[in-house]
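Q: Could you fold this chain for me?
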Amino acid sequence: MKIKENIIAGLIAISIPLNMASTQTKANDFSQELDEAIRKIRSNSQELVKKHPELLELPEEEIFTIVKNSLSRIISLSTNNTEEDLVMLKEVGFTISNTSNTQLLAGFDPIENNITIYYDNIINYCKNNLEEGENLETLIYDSLTSTITHELNHQRQMPINPNTPMIPKFLLEASAESSLYNEGLDPNYLIKDASDYHYLANRQKESLILLLGLMSEDVSISDYYQAIFDSDIESLYRFCGQTSLEEKNKLKNIWKKMEEEDYSYLPEILKIVLANMVDYTYQNSHFSVEENIAVFNIVKNIIAENPNIEPTITEEIMSLVNTYDKFLCSYYCITKEELKGMIRLNSYVLECLTVTQNLPYNLPDLQKAYDLLADFSILKAILYPNYISDNHYTNLTLNRSIN
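A: Sure. Below is the predicted structure, expressed as structure tokens.
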């Protein structure tokens, strides 16, 4: 088996299980509803064009075919309340914009339930990103598919009850995109990487929120998307392990700081994650020092390596890092020098990065990565949008001060 096939086989093994037989059954169960939804969406689209004939055009039939395929994948693969989704999705309409005064590929207007596709922008985007050997028409079709699914996700995020507490805006944008690969809603997600998707900054912030559920054995990435697409803020609190009134208020304050680009939220998140890691270590005697160091270094790299961090915030982060180093030495009965050596020799992180980010295959065996990613199923979703190169990782770990 070729190297790429090995990696893809491992990715499939650690991805959200897709039971294709039950998936097909679920799609068949909803076939009539899907047909009805497409008829209603086409009718909605015609009404929107009649309302704004000077601005909008009716999409060609190919667009409605893509919409139906996207709806089918959403219903088949999503784990939230998809019956409720269908109720919401039947209200949407699709139009093509006559204007080009934006750089967006598409946009969702929740007032008119209109998904506007900026077709010329999509064509220009695909031309600018066409690589040697790629087919432009195929790339346009793929871009339309992921763009339409993203916008349908925004409609799914709309609560039926208008008084429902809202999910933070940056998480709505991030999850509409990240579900394309984390839930497999993009049919080509296995052959893409993080740079093929949009809203990277929001997705990187989302990965910090996912860190809060990393060490919990009671939640999965599916729980996160269920909370998002069911507009269930309480389930989102539970995913993050923040269930008391004090914890919820602390998390809401972190969300506010994230939206305001106030990076003091970084040590606050790190403090919660490290406390969770201490608890997990005490409760799971099989958690080896090598595995612990690997997870710790991934957490530290993702949180600390932001070029906009102020020196005072960096100092606070490094203080927490050094405190956890001391915990590792104490719990595993190793010296500071031994810990430094383990950090230098630890290959778990490099294996995980090789699997999730298509780094050069220069390791003899990826089994440790598959095992670690299986034990911490959310880890793959966290790593995916956070690019850390081989050299970058090595420099960071060697420059740590253990005192």
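A (continued): The beta strands are 56-57, 93-97, 106-109, 114-117.
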